[in-house]
Amino acid sequence: MSGSAEACMSSSHPASSQVPSPSSTESERPNPIRGAYPPWRRGPKELLEATKPFQQEDRKRSWWHVVETFGAYFTLLAICALAPWWWVRLFASIVLGLVIVRAFILYHDFMHLSILRGSTLAKWIFYAFGLYVLTPPTVWRATHNYHHAHTAKIVGSHVGSYLMVTTEMWKSMNWKERLMYKLIRHPINIVLAYLTVFAIGMNLSPFFRNPRKHFDAAVALLAHAALLFAITMVWGWEMTLYTTIIPFFVAMMLGAYLFYAQHDFPEMYVQPRETWEYTRAALESSSYMEMGPIMRWFTGNIGYHHVHHLNPGIPFYRLPEVMAAIPELQHPRGKTSLHPRDIMRCFSVKLWDPQKEQMVGYPDD
Question: pTM here?
Fold first, then answer.
């Protein structure tokens, strides 16, 4: 729902001033990246250059999205707290969880420096929000930056992402390692993301690894526990349930799944570590999730994930514009959606098979 990629953007490959259409023959434009998909893609440096004009932020538009998002958040929070009917409170709680996902995308973009860069007010708002949603800024910055610079790179790609191993690595793992791997990638881990991915993975673990560096993780956990306790003591457990537990459960479950499906889908390509290349990882190891306009609003266009990984400096509200303008982005290798069929497809693949060059399930043994 978690970057810097500047160090990965350099390339010695030749660039072309024109992009052939998908119908062009391969001989018209040899691909500079051996085996890359599709064959008419421009070289890495040229493709990245084509995205740079879209990094331009509309400052007023960015602030409007902050106002509308947090306005929706506080309106729904009031309904969760004050509505006289339980079913209205429940519905508002679920929608509030979806709005938290959108607010998280704003936080995510601010941390990428793609919106409201240099704004002290925005920094206070989003740093406080990061602590509130159990995503402390120091942890998010460290893990998400690393994730963008090592997407789908076997060995090391687990930082800020879900662990992935090859079929050969699986054979050498002991039963405890295999069990842990299965638990990490199991749907139950996604469902319980409020506790597993966020409370433990984004706070407890980083704090215990480096208390001085990730002191804000302890602050986030203590503040969250204090908030739950205070609401329950003053207004009762129902208030806590509708205003905090359900919204967080929904937001973190959806956020965890979005992140999973963005980098774990049947068509993805995982490059060998020795020949890993940034733009290919962005376009072939990051999915495009098709959604309707309502879910695109709630998820802040994060479904255009292959575009975001190509250039994380692009504001979230310009991602559809970029995909429409650049031919190479209009034919993503991996398409998915929130349809149950596509969710099952994403959960069906677990390991990377280098010989078959595809994601596969667990072996029978």
Answer: 0.88
Alpha helices (runs of H) in the chain, residue ranges in sequence order? 44-51, 59-82, 86-111, 120-132, 137-149, 167-172, 175-184, 187-191, 205-209, 215-235, 237-240, 246-263, 278-284, 293-298, 305-310, 319-325, 340-348
d(CA 359, CA 267): 7
- What would the pLDDT profile of 60-88 be if each residue is shown by its tens digit? 999 999 999 999 999 999 999 999 999 99
Q: Is 142 exposed, middle or buried (0-12, 13-18, 19+ CB in 10 A)?
A: middle
Spatial separation of the C-alpha atoms in residues 98 and 234, rounded to whole Å: 26
- Angstrom distance (rounded) from CA 23 to CA 12: 27
Unique residue bearing structure tokens 């500079």: 32
For 148, the token pair is: 């963008």
CA distance 166 to 350: 9
Extents of the domains making up the chain: 59-360
Strands 351-353 and 335-337: unpaired
Burial of 56 (0-12, 13-18, 19+ CB in 10 A): exposed
